[in-house]
Amino acid sequence: MENSHKPILALLSAYAENLADTYSDLTNAELKKERETIARFVSFINSTAHPYSRQNLEGHFCGSAWVLDKECKRVVLTHHAKLEKWIQLGGHADDDTDLFRVALKEAHEESGLKQLEGLRNEKGQCLPFDFCIHEIPENKGVPAHLHYDVTYVFIAGDEELECSEESFSVRWFTFEEAATVSGPETRYQLRKLQNLLKSKNRR
To answer: What dotted CATH number matches 3-202?
Structure first.
């Protein structure tokens, strides 16, 4: 196993260990599905030499970002031009093994926000908020493949949003508004995000 794979495996292990405590509102079925996703991540990492490269057409890592306002009442969604739906910010790792850095870079580029701080746990760590795997349809000769998405949470400063060329629009939504324009996967992440914020407030 390459040394570059060890950090992501350590993050997956920590996520799995704290899953039930961090997301106390998840059902047993949802916790089971989360653990199945973690197992798929580990299997993928251990079976491919280049999980961070988009040239790996089986699948590859992406870094994603949920961006919150200072009051943690609103989130940023982008209306993605290729996928034609409202989703959180994010993009390909492109051989960068630091997926926090990837998520931060994509959040900057897709929102225009520069004052972003990673959400930290009680130990001062910025750990992944979510791991998910989703299918990307064939597009312009690139075959359908999987995105292994590692997501972080960021808090924004007082800045104006700027839409990138990759999107039709980018805007702030309340959690309730975001849920009305999102698909099932994004709505699930919104619920997890609210659960995470509740857990932090209880500590």
So the answer is: 3.90.79.10
